[in-house]
Amino acid sequence: MNPTIGILGGGQLGLMLLQASIDWNLRIHVLDPDAQASCRHLCTHFQQGSLTDYDTVYQFGQGVDVITIEIEKVNVEALEALQREGKQVFPQPAVIRTIQDKRLQKQFFRDHNLPTADFVLTDDRADVSRQVAQNPDLLPAFHKLGRDGYDGRGVQRVATTADLHKAFDAPGVLEKAVDFEKELAVIVARNERGEVQTFPTVEMVFHPELNLVDYLFAPASISESIDQQAQTIARQTAEAFGIVGLLAVELFLTKEGEVLLNEVAPRPHNSGHHTIRANVTSQFEQHWRAILNLPLGDTTGYQPAAMLNLLGEDGHTGPARYEGLDTVLAMPGVFPFLYGKAITKPFRKMGHITVMDPDLDTLRQKVAAVQGAIRVVSE
Amino acid sequence: MNPTIGILGGGQLGLMLLQASIDWNLRIHVLDPDAQASCRHLCTHFQQGSLTDYDTVYQFGQGVDVITIEIEKVNVEALEALQREGKQVFPQPAVIRTIQDKRLQKQFFRDHNLPTADFVLTDDRADVSRQVAQNPDLLPAFHKLGRDGYDGRGVQRVATTADLHKAFDAPGVLEKAVDFEKELAVIVARNERGEVQTFPTVEMVFHPELNLVDYLFAPASISESIDQQAQTIARQTAEAFGIVGLLAVELFLTKEGEVLLNEVAPRPHNSGHHTIRANVTSQFEQHWRAILNLPLGDTTGYQPAAMLNLLGEDGHTGPARYEGLDTVLAMPGVFPFLYGKAITKPFRKMGHITVMDPDLDTLRQKVAAVQGAIRVVSE
């Protein structure tokens, strides 16, 4: 277990990967464009540089044996070159390439008979209008940018033809809106020897406006048959990609009890942060196990858990201050995790809080108490 | 929660403190004499230097707001000077001074009516003989060096007068050997506001020759009344010291069902490593909570756990290689933690392995399987 590993990206996911790597004393280099990235002091070697520049990524990769990512917006051509030269690149560049582009991703689901909402690929804004005219049943829909959408950016709701002007004037995918009961997620790990292991299905509650996870519950309150559907689709998706590493699979549970693929990410994911505290193996340790071709770990949860994102307060921009931290630290089974970002901005992800309790009602009460107690403001 | 913290010592305990600090994004400087110390890449600032040199410790302390330790063999005078100048030094220098010297430590127990084995303080080897002549009931006994004993060094068994030549020719304590049933340990945390919290009592099995923990079980298999005694003594001891931080309390359970203090350490301890995986709050997070005057965390264990020290194989000195790691990683609920020491030596602590299982018999079987599967050898 002596390879030198490189991570593209040194934000909060990198931070949690580094924390998990300490158990096995892994040697890790980190590349991030931000000289003040969260990871800068917690790795064997930190390099400031662009993740999307071919030469930077290629040269960074020359210094390590195994390359992985904590963000999918990276230069895939450089990763392909490194892979050709014998470096281990996990997840594989081909998987990243497909997932990077929501058009290729949706098409991949369709090509592999993975259940997903109906959609059409669109070239530009005019094309969206043309296709809606031909197929009015697509509305209400979401128009998603093919590339570079992230955390709610790059998605527009097109409810009626009156909204068509909001569509992106760039290649995208127009996806029929799912009238869902719940949003679910399953994190899957797969290693090189083909072992596959899923985490328990979680239930995500999105912020009504921000299109990012407000909080989640693990395990999801769903019937065993729905759970089986979700687990099966997640596993089939990971196997279809043949991914080595983690695949975070976001799903819709429709009002008719059908489970549909929403989208996937080839890396640790916000929907698995609670596993650091609540599960035998965390998603971060599982990522290392997967990409180092080690046996995958037991994913059992110890207790029901919730995870809240700690977002920067609206109207506050500047050096971050955490109000109410002492209060939440006094609550049993409440674990704040701060990402170390110096500056808070409205709705910026500044940390998360895991809440655990054996009793579901008490868990919900604790979540409400935490939400009422803590705020990230500027100094 | 923005102080800069300094840790004296950058070995495995420092490593685990750093790992726990990542959740709260603490800014940490580390001082260690070894330029290759485990912590060197995992802190905000690493400084190579002596822990026992006044100037080095004093100057290191000037650069931080809060100073703590991961080893008690440090320059206490420098810590006292830093404390006088308004730095927060936890555990307090006075506590470190008492505990550093086994003579002062034992006398402290006696002065505070804390139950402990009978003993006499001895000036030198001749004094040991004199005192045994006056009080032959002290034998069989252990002669312990007052200062600088560590991990089994600095302890000699004096079973009969024929062993008197083995006694140290330096200030020490001659302590009547306890005919014990079990060795127990309780880790206590106390913060500045006087909150005290104990971890569940564990049962340690020492290596028959090496005088270091071979493995431990948590919780200990003892009656509730014995457990209460152990917990009460541990709490009283922490309160007697008025310590801010962790106090690891080692205890004997005698064959008569009496609980006696053996010795204490003012820091995270080998007897609490399993808490990283097995307890709601780990001893390392609890240390941060205690010295930063935050509310202490819930210490409940999720499942019965065992901890095995991973010692360098006898006869092997050189670059370390871990045989059987893949095998133990495939066992559910088995968590190796490697300290990143480049060189293995016979019986050197190279890591530890936490083993968990809801069922005690299965737990014991897993421990045996792990012991049979893994070895640290030289390359």
Automatic annotation (TrEMBL), chains A, B:
It is an enzyme of class 6 (ligase). Homodimer. GO terms for biological process: 'de novo' IMP biosynthetic process. SUPFAM superfamilies: Glutathione synthetase ATP-binding domain-like, PreATP-grasp domain, Rudiment single hybrid motif. The keyword ATP-binding applies. Pathway: Purine metabolism; IMP biosynthesis via de novo pathway; 5-amino-1-(5-phospho-D-ribosyl)imidazole-4-carboxylate from 5-amino-1-(5-phospho-D-ribosyl)imidazole (N5-CAIR route): step 1/2. PROSITE patterns: ATP_GRASP. GO terms for cellular component: cytosol. Pfam families: ATP-grasp, PurK_C, RS_preATP-grasp-like. Catalyzes the ATP-dependent conversion of 5-aminoimidazole ribonucleotide (AIR) and HCO(3)- to N5-carboxyaminoimidazole ribonucleotide (N5-CAIR). Catalyzes the ATP-dependent conversion of 5-aminoimidazole ribonucleotide (AIR) and HCO(3)(-) to N5-carboxyaminoimidazole ribonucleotide (N5-CAIR). This is N5-carboxyaminoimidazole ribonucleotide synthase. It catalyses: 5-amino-1-(5-phospho-beta-D-ribosyl)imidazole + hydrogencarbonate + ATP = 5-carboxyamino-1-(5-phospho-D-ribosyl)imidazole + ADP + phosphate + 2 H(+). ATP binds at K102, K144, E175, K176, A177, V178, E183, N262, E263. Residues 106-292 form the ATP-grasp domain. Its EC number is 6.3.4.18. It comes from Rudanella paleaurantiibacter. GO terms for molecular function: 5-(carboxyamino)imidazole ribonucleotide synthase activity; ATP binding; metal ion binding; phosphoribosylaminoimidazole carboxylase activity. Keywords: ATP-binding, Ligase, Nucleotide-binding, Purine biosynthesis. Belongs to the PurK/PurT family.
